[in-house]
Amino acid sequence: MTVSPDALVEIAEESPQADLTEPSGAGPEIGNRRLRKEDQRLITGRTKWTDNIVLPGMLHLAMVRSPFAHAKITSIDTSGAQGLPNVVAVFTAADFPDGMGACANAWPITPEQVTPDHLPMIGERVACAGEIVAVVVARSAKEARDAAEQVDVDYEELPAVFDAMEAMKDEILAHPDKGTNKSAFWKLDSKEAGTGGDVDEAIAKARQDGVVIEREFRQQRLIPAFMEPRSTVVDPTGEQVTMWSATQIPHILRFLIAATTGMPESKVRVIAPDVGGGFGGKLQTTPEEFITLAVARRLGKPCKYTETRSESLISGHHGRDQYQKLTLAAEKDGTVTGLKVDLVANLGAYVAIVGGGVPVLGAWMFNSIYKFPAYQFNCQTVLTNTTWVDAYRGAGRPEATFGIERIMDELAAELGRDPLEVREQNWIKHEEFPFTSVAGMTYDSGNYEAATARAKELFGYDALRAEQAERRERKDPVQLGIGVSTFTEMCGLAPSRVLGSLAYGAGGWEHASIRMLPTGKVEVITGTSPHGQGHETAWSQIVADRLGVPFEDVEVLHGDTAVAYKGLDTYGSRSLVVGAEAVVRAADKVIEKAKGFAAHMLEASEDDLEFVGGRYGVKGTDKGVGLTDIALATFASHDYPEHLEPGIDADATFDPDNFSFPHGTHLCAMEVDTETGQSRMRSYVCVDDIGHIINPLIVEGQIHGGLVQGIAQALWEEAIFDENGTLVTGSFVDYTLPTAADTISFVTENTISPSTTNTLGAKGVGEAGTIASTPAVVNAIVDALRPMGIDDIVMPCTPQRVWKAIQTAGDHSGDVAAQAQPHFDEGAANADPGVTGEGNGQ
Amino acid sequence: MTRITVTVDGDTYTDDVEPRTLLVQYLRENLGKVGTVIGCDTSNCGACTVHLDGRSVKSCNVLAVQADGHEVTTIEGLATDGQLHPMQKAFHENHALQCGYCTPGMIMQAIDILKDHPDPSEQQIREGLEGNLCRCTGYHNIVKAVAAAAKAPGAELASSKVGE
Amino acid sequence: MIPTAFDYVAPESVADALAALADSDDAKVLAGGQSLLPILRMRLNAPDKVVDLGRIAELRGVREDGDAIVIGAMTSYVDLLADPLVAEHAALLKAAIETVADPQIRRRGTIGGALVHADPAGDVGAPVLALDGELVITGSAGERTVAAADFFEDLFTTAVGEDELLTAVRIPKHTGWGAAYEKFVRVAHQWSIVAVAATVRMEGDTIAEARVGLTNMGSTPLRATATEEALAGKQASAEAIAEACAKAADGTNPPSDLNGDGDYRKHLATVFTRRAVLAAAD
């Protein structure tokens, strides 16, 4: 029961895109459901995954990892591994007295942030399970693995802390030398910032004559679980080193290799070949990359390391893991007067590349689409003896969206009103854009009414509400719940000046170049680094329209620092709105550069020329010359104006001046079997406003995949450590990813409010589904159970949690699952005053 | 070492292998058939699915020595005379892949579904794919692609050319 | 990940397989390999020898033997699903096997391999137990037959000795019995959290006899004896069935793990027993 493809094309065609394609007059390719250029190699098994690379004389690495979460290494005996057949070397940290680089934190969120050194190989003290203490190098992967098992490591276990609330007490220290587990405290207060009122006043007033809703929510720990395990191949050739890696960030990796090893950046080439998914999980510089690099350089031989899935789940960074406390103040008529947010975020054992910053992104997102007059956001990050935590699809925005969308439902329930109606009462009306939020963000465009109206229509909202009432009436053991999520997000990371003000270690621009080949073909070089997103197709469509060349004649190159020599890679739904905008600007420069040649070739004045359909013509005549003819002419360069250089290739760097703000309305119907606690999805409708759409086919795919990841957080996935710090969900047997048999087909549509921050009018779509769907599902389950007195289920909403909530609901002792979690006030007792300030304690 | 003779994608190979060698490792490391990939170590993900004597198996869950004397078809052996298999075509036309890592296994398993269910319901497709994990597509377009392939001209070719 | 090194033999007769087993202190028998290979790859077990039964033709297939059907231990799940004798005389076994793992694993996996692996969350133990199956075990001294009730000794432990093989499964014919296997999982590729195998012989509207096996409600497959007794001779009404099935978890000691604690599993056992019996009696 999906929307017909034709309907989506119509929607895309209705959008005012003429201005975008006008410069070339060709196309339009933009808006077409172009089948992907990437597919051919992927469906025939001719893909270049890193693990497919075989080089002459290549050696294989196997890692020796700590089984303990926190321990001193008292001795390492490698003699059992040395000398085994085809074992070339065994190294420990002691073999690299000058180090081997370091995993860097690129975003210290405060100047005082406590940031433990994160060395690739540990010689003295491991701070989480899975840390590498030795590496075995052999002629084959199996011989390396066999020998790794013969490395004998003695550990002296140290007390370890795993839970963020426990860590807040500072009784057991994840890093004893740091003296505290608290890494950083970050606050945004609308009164102090001048963007709004005093939230404590709003709460105090609401306690007297309004409504105060206080809730604690848990964002469980997740694992990105990209399908391609991480792999790295390093080929040292003299001074030059080439690294292939399954990474989202070849450019950043190259920079950080140079910055932390002292290697000249110009001697390092990083290639991300085809990369099998990332979802933030490959947005990292990893111990494994640094170790493979160091070993290959030491031995002067090509080396490969490919992780197993079990290694991936314990050592690749995890996502989310935060405690949230929200206090919402409202008038009795439902008008929200203030929101206060307290977060405690678990960073794991180290502050990962943007690990500290991810929860802080919530600062601008908890207020979401609403016009709250007062707002405060407090975030405490803490270190624990667990796998490091960093970006996972959505990164900061799913957490915030979950918190606000859950509590808006709770407000509606408290007032006995329809949850969409209460949202509409508080959201920014379409005529109010641009709108500066209470967190200080300027939302440039949006139309929440339109998306919601369409979603309700597609969903059959009223009919489902009627069925819900009927099932309640007859006490059906299978109850129906309807979940609402209206969301916005900030995409297009990011304006460099904003990043600078937040002490982020890099800019947010993106780069592109366009090479006009003499045979009429076009090469587009992008600094983005796709790993499933379809940039080769979408960028081709954009360039085809812009330059008036056939889609098939455009080739998109990426992911190799020697080819795409400048870039900031792919994450944060940035590629289209920042990266493709750079492509557009490079194309415009090509057109501009070609003008002088056209004038010369046509013996006309530049003023008399117009560029239409890939061709410069003399106005009012049929004289003209094609862009590709100009490219050939500049290749020969036999005859060209003296003031021009012979070539029309161009490059451009685009730095956005604002984020983009996709939004949407997601509606979910869940059937909850009250006998077993099992929840089953009945239907899911979403209407997303992501601005102009370049390729509806790719957009739908991004939404579908995003939805299932968000739904999986609500229902299925959680990374769980036992009391020893062992990851009990350490394989795909226990880390329960959903299958096709667990999911349904979705109804997806779009409304279009173009972004004003890029000429494409696009907003970004990579994370929308994940951000919006989690609260929609949980709201639906809670909605189904609310008549029983249940007002929350902790994620993932497992059948057992739901069933136990039902069992205890009658005696009003609250949600047992929630009780099993540490409570905010207990754990946060020693927190910064900002975290447990007044307004808590109910 | 044990000597085995295996026909893979129509070509016959004879090799000495260690008995512990998994079929997927034999395909990738000995034969260079790197189109078949490894996604997990517990046989949950299905990325390594190939056809053994014409029906789908997880090649990480079969020893190479067990394939001695048998015929294997991988993703690399599906296209004939430069023509994509109808299932490959359907995956392309329905945008049933994003990063593409699960795709070889998904396509091999999808072909197997049509052998049991030439005109499958959505439920039969979904259950038929329950041994194959995908993290990108949310399965929506994969399910669509399998349904489309079943209706495509030449879908009866949807059995691999070996075995049966 | 790759298993540790081992020797490999693929005998073509049961006698040769027994000889190969006797020849080693630490051999593992490879049947379908769908549980064994992940274990070897994760290096949770490191045998010095693997004895592959895959080339022993006599261990495959289903035949009729008087009032029973006899299933060769190396018969694969897909072959069982396609087998008319299984469909006619052991519908419960078929219903359970339909839910095992996924299609690729059902292609390779064998009934004998699963029974000897004896994972309490596996799906074939409960129906074999409920159908009063008998297990034929062959050793150097010849064959012996063990009732299913005596076959499962503990977690991953059966009556099959070190140097013995399970060679066949003998299932008394339950021709005309209604059957249902209710399996509870959170995601489709999981092992059973709880599952219930129920089969009933109806006489008109009355349940003449009922057999109920429980999956993952203890360290071995279990029979819900109290429920079986309570069902016998009852009208197949929803109320009567519900009342009888409320006893399904009596005497069980289910595990507690990530998917549920013991109390929850006991509750699930009663719900799914009721649903399975209702479906079987329908």
UniProtKB/TrEMBL annotation, chain A:
InterPro entries: Ald_Oxase/Xan_DH_a/b, Ald_Oxase/Xan_DH_a/b_sf, Ald_Oxase/xanthine_DH-like, AldOxase/xan_DH_MoCoBD1, AldOxase/xan_DH_MoCoBD2, AldOxase/xan_DH_Mopterin-bd_sf. Its EC number is 1.17.1.4. Residues 44-159 form the Aldehyde oxidase/xanthine dehydrogenase a/b hammerhead domain. One of its GO terms (molecular function) is iron ion binding. SMART domains: Ald_Xan_dh_C. SUPFAM superfamilies: CO dehydrogenase molybdoprotein N-domain-like, Molybdenum cofactor-binding domain. The keyword Oxidoreductase applies. It holds the Pfam family MoCoBD_2. Keywords: Molybdenum, Oxidoreductase. PANTHER family: ALDEHYDE OXIDASE 1-RELATED (PTHR11908:SF132), XANTHINE DEHYDROGENASE (PTHR11908). This is Xanthine dehydrogenase, molybdenum binding subunit apoprotein. It comes from Nostocoides australiense Ben110.
Automatic annotation (TrEMBL), chain B:
PROSITE patterns: 2FE2S_FER_2. Signal peptide: none annotated. The keyword Iron applies. Residues 2-78 form the 2Fe-2S ferredoxin-type domain. Pfam families: Fer2, Fer2_2. InterPro entries: 2Fe-2S-bd (IPR002888), 2Fe-2S-bd_dom_sf (IPR036884), 2Fe-2S_ferredoxin-like_sf (IPR036010), 2Fe-2S_ferredoxin-type (IPR001041), Beta-grasp_dom_sf (IPR012675), Diverse_Oxidoreductases (IPR051452). Keywords: 2Fe-2S, Iron, Iron-sulfur, Metal-binding, Oxidoreductase. CDD domains: fer2. Its EC number is 1.2.99.2. GO terms for molecular function: 2 iron, 2 sulfur cluster binding; metal ion binding; oxidoreductase activity. Gene3D superfamilies: 3.10.20.30, [2Fe-2S]-binding domain. Pathway: Alkaloid degradation; nicotine degradation. PANTHER family: OXIDOREDUCTASE WITH IRON-SULFUR SUBUNIT. This is Carbon monoxide dehydrogenase small chain. It comes from Nostocoides australiense Ben110.
TrEMBL record, chain C:
It holds the Pfam family CO_deh_flav_C. It comes from the Bacteria. One of its GO terms (molecular function) is oxidoreductase activity. Keywords: FAD, Flavoprotein, Oxidoreductase. Its EC number is 1.2.99.2. Residues 1-176 form the FAD-binding PCMH-type domain. It is an enzyme of class 1 (oxidoreductase). InterPro entries: CO_DH_flav_C (IPR005107), CO_DH_flav_C_dom_sf (IPR036683), Diverse_Substr_Oxidored (IPR051312), FAD-bd_PCMH (IPR016166), FAD-bd_PCMH-like_sf (IPR036318), FAD-bd_PCMH_sub1 (IPR016167), FAD-bd_PCMH_sub2 (IPR016169), Mopterin_DH_FAD-bd (IPR002346). This is Carbon monoxide dehydrogenase medium chain. It comes from Nostocoides australiense Ben110. The lineage of its organism: Bacteria, Bacillati, Actinomycetota, Actinomycetes, Micrococcales.
